[in-house]
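Help needed: design a sequence for this.
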């Protein structure tokens, strides 16, 4: 199978040289790379792209992760059989892409796969990866990898390979998320279309979690987005009436988080962040409160971006 790699660069000067240098050896074949300049990059155009069949796109303004990747999906000169969404803050060990492509080629029921993900310094497991595993799968992490894949409900976006025809069937990332949970939402649609999602234990990538949240202000924004987007994802994943989940969010979760924030309990968010996140939810409630309206607006977005 062949692959197109979409790599969105946002304030990526620290990460891009290592990412690109290691990526060239991640496959025995020559790779198609779509590099997206999403603002804040001063060395992007000085990078050696000769190991790749590369094209460089530029976003009209700084975009969220979801929409920046969608710019590449729509604007690339072509797309190969598989699309790899790869984060800028990754290091690619040799051969991992080929092992993921072999897994996809061996099982047509797989719509998307991911390598297992280590920390950037290779001294542990990436939290975005372990969050997707069952307890039994976590218990096998330190075992010698075998040929079997580990089926999961969702896989994270640091290194996510999706069949191109599946993307055309289910649509791209939903820009309502901006960043965070856009990968889970894509996996939700892939599963509902009848495909499976899995990790490939024989393939590994290293990832620096949180490279774009390097200031207190950015960390507060990250917390806001996580609270907002987690709710949107829950509304879509749960088959129950959405007003029940919204009532629980505003009537139970928000007050609970406010109290925890005031008491400064471990892993709590500042009360101001919780209130801002609640306001963010109100800003999209006209869309997400009603399932049919939400689906209609999503289909309108996909159609406007060239559904095939």
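Sure. Designed sequence:
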């Amino acid at each position: 199978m062949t692959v197109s790699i979409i790599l969105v660069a946002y304030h990526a000067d620290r990460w891009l040289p290592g990412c690109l240098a290691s990526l060239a050896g991640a496959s025995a074949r020559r790779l198609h790379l779509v590099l997206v300049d999403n603002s804040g990059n001063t060395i992007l155009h000085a990078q050696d792209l000769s190991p790749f069949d590369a094209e460089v796109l530029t976003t009209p303004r700084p975009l969220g992760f979801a929409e920046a990747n969608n710019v590449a999906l729509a604007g690339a000169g072509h797309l190969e059989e598989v699309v790899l969404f790869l984060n800028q803050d990754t290091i690619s060990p040799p051969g991992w892409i080929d092992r993921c492509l072999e897994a996809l080629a061996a099982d047509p029921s797989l719509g998307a796969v991911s390598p297992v993900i280590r920390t950037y310094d290779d001294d542990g497991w990436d939290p975005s990866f372990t969050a997707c595993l069952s307890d039994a799968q976590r218990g096998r992490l330190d075992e010698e990898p075998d040929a079997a894949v580990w089926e999961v409900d969702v896989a994270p976006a640091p290194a996510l390979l999706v069949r191109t025809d599946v993307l055309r069937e289910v649509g791209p990332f939903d820009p309502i998320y901006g960043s965070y949970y856009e990968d889970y939402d894509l996996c939700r649609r892939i599963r509902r279309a009848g495909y499976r999602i899995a990790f490939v234990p024989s393939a590994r990538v290293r990832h620096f979690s949180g490279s774009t949240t390097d200031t207190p202000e950015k960390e507060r924004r990250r917390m806001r987005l996580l609270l907002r987007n987690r709710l949107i994802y829950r509304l879509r994943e749960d088959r129950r009436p959405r007003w029940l989940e919204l009532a629980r969010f505003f009537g139970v979760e928000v007050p609970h988080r406010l109290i925890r924030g005031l008491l400064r309990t471990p892993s709590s968010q500042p009360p101001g962040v919780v209130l801002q996140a609640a306001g963010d939810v109100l800003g999209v409630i006209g869309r997400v409160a009603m399932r049919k309206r939400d689906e209609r607006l999503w289909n309108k977005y996909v159609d406007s971006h060239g559904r095939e």
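The chain has two domains: 3-207, 216-304.
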